[in-house]
Structure prediction request, 568 residues.
Amino acid sequence: MSYRIGEEKLEVYYQVSLELVRKCGPLFLEGFQKPKTDYEVKSAFYDLVTVYDKQIEATLTDGLLKTFPESKIIGEEAMANAKTPPELTDAPTWIIDPIDGTNNYVRKIPHCCISVGLAINKELVLGIVYNPSANELYSAWQGHGAYLNGQPIEVSNAKKINQALVCYEISLIVVSKGRDKNVKRLYKLASSATGTRSFGCAALTLCYIAAGRCDAYHVENLKPWDLAGGAVILREAGGRVYHTSGARFDVMKPDCVCTSSEELAKSVIQLIEGADQISGYTFK
Amino acid sequence: MSSAVSESKLKEYYDVALKLVLKCGPLMQEGYQKAKTEYKVKADFYDLVTVYDKQIEDILTEGLVAAFPESLIIGEEESAVSQRQAELTDAPTWIIDPIDGTTNFIHRIPHCCISVGLAINKELVVGIIYNPPANELFSAYKGHGAYLNGEPIHTSKVTTIKQAVIAYEISLIHAAGVRDKNVKRLYKMASNATGTRCFGSAALTLCYVATGQCDAYHVEDLKPWDIAAGAIILTEAGGTVCHTSGSKFDVMKPDCVCAATPELAKNVISLIEEAGQITEYTFK
Prediction:
């Protein structure tokens, strides 16, 4: 069964979720500004969660389900104990990361945010990414452009890799499975880019490309909630979001190449293919 | 000729430099807001400099020499123009980077700063680093601790790499001459750290170790002005700054390992040594 969503309904989804996300700002800052923010380790020593992740997710989930009882939720903390991977249906589905960049959050590095995306008929239609620590609220809904604190944002005009500021999640090198891939791809991208950065927050990195601050990003092995909100914002800002292979982006398996332009996406994909051909050495 | 500097003279150096740096804030902010304008290429296509770089350095240089005629200047822009290798004598010497993180500055990424260090008898004694876009003013003078916006800062207590969030300048992989070294060292460090970041400003990264937001940083092939001020801020915050080999830090050849604790510094140095043992493949 396919859902037909009118423009008016889409705007209601946007206004309600925007208000809820804003409402979580003070709670987010309370944890961020605390001299010492306690955390638990989840799946691995580098995978952290705080009480604020749980409280923010509960606030968002409760608020959204109350207003839109027909919708579904895919949230990071709700999924933390799930036995099966989340499934995306045609129903309006909120894809929520209550704190993206929790490792930054506990250390008070101001690259952390609340991220909310909405998919309907398996298409991403709405994204809100809010970083209270930098007073930045990015938002977008399908067909209506992307905004930072209410002002329109647009990607840069970078088309060549040697003009591009590239982002890469170098923290992922800590995971032994995927280590070789990540070191080699970083090597190829950083060798060609004018500069390379790693901020430790996927959702915000997509927003930085949307705002024209950065130009390209490649990441794999993350979760839908890491990418969903930012992907809509980037597209509405004129950017490109593809699967790493160059195929269509799939939010449920969000291995991706994100760029300011089509040409740049092609260059990044080619460099990744080049990296994957390196067989003379393996980083274990 | 060596001359002891009195406590009150040291305080005067600090106070005057602080006022001058603050005075440059509005100018830097003006340039930051203009973004992607009035730049030209120097040295390599990706090493950008702006008119603001020159203006800020002029204000600092003129102000410091007027207040302290006996002092000398080692500045980024002055060195670029004169093409002369800077030399450090026993004279009070200001080591200035008018904008550290020029690529970030141009892209409106809020990790860019004015950096001013003072060395006397070849020892660093004053450091001031000001990031107007993020409203962060880091300062220190020898024996008096380190401060962020007037509040004391201190490094974390992290002693092992497994607990550490480290920072690494992955942009350096772009330079063919140091590529292989940087790929291998990053691989070793990121494989063991709880997280790895790259912000694109050496001066600020030293400050983030000083505040405990990050725990360790390794970088080579930079200039004295990239590291001078941050090094004294970090040591006054309780951190360790040594040469990559583990020997005494030399600001004029500032290849360094910077860490929250001496134990962590040793950990990082061991990993760098391990990286140096990888000889069966070269990343060209």
